[in-house]
């Protein structure tokens, strides 16, 4: 398949170019497009054959549901049986934005989209290109991340090209995404609500919006997987480089000496075995490592910057001439919970605690 790459301004998208992309969506094609979180691979939600192409292009398991992206609330009403009061509260506070909500689907939504579930995951993205593409397509767009299943999600068009060039119709090039990790997913159908996947909108903020507790199960922390894919990111291993990744965690991030000593000890052990080692550190610790290749994710004082750098750094592991990577953990506050969810999954639970 010939894949066209179309460069579009991320803030003031050119309507003629986006109109062409929308025609491809309406005709059953696949378009990779930017959101504020990561790049998505989109098809019209009402065209089953087009949605099936998403799973084929990504090599994605059919029971792993897709998120449906909308540009207005009328589209939401056309997809769900009802909009619960709690959902409306979060919509008022957080849409457009990096928050996905779980609703009971109606008959307009195919089981292909939901992975066989009676529920559908929906969000309204906060990216000018995504919103205008959905509007011009005149249909909600079903879209997982625009990468091969299991790989780190794409945060720029280069990542999409690496994974999907020649497999889809169009890749929109609108530069880097804003947040760099996928949306927060909340199931508000339960009492109390359950966090299914942490993301840029912190669970602490959602608690404030709803004025109630949110259950955070182990799978939302990246410490387990569900038997049934309740939403994207709950069942299958994700975000993984092909080379081994070891995560070093601590229960107290106010002092980092133990963390650094353990990571350095592991590095020395691998070097004795003639292995080339990459240390993925933070700005505060990067100068403590000797005789290893070191990359920083950013400052611990700005976890949003760390999150934005996360996936491109995980992809870097496979690009560099190294045999193994060791990554420092981060405090699970705010978006830090999303960072640790992704790192635990990326490591395949290869975790060392100090």
What does this protein structure show overall?
This protein is 32% helix and 18% strand. By secondary structure, the protein is of the alpha/beta class. α10 (303-319) packs parallel to α11 (336-346). β9 (184-187) and β10 (194-197) form a beta hairpin. It has a 10-stranded mixed β-sheet, with helices on both faces. Strands 13-12-14-11-15 form a 5-stranded parallel β-sheet, sandwiched between helices. It has 2 domains: 4-221, DHBP synthase (Alpha-Beta Complex); 245-353, Threonylcarbamoyl-AMP synthase, C-terminal domain (Rossmann fold).
Q: What is the C-alpha radius of gyration, as a whole number of Å?
A: 20 Å
Helical stretch count?
11
Number of strands: 15
Kindly provide the name of the CATH class of the largest domain.
Alpha Beta
Q: Specify the helix fraction band.
A: 25-40%
Give start-end ranges of low-pLDDT stretches: none
CATH fold title of the largest domain? DHBP synthase
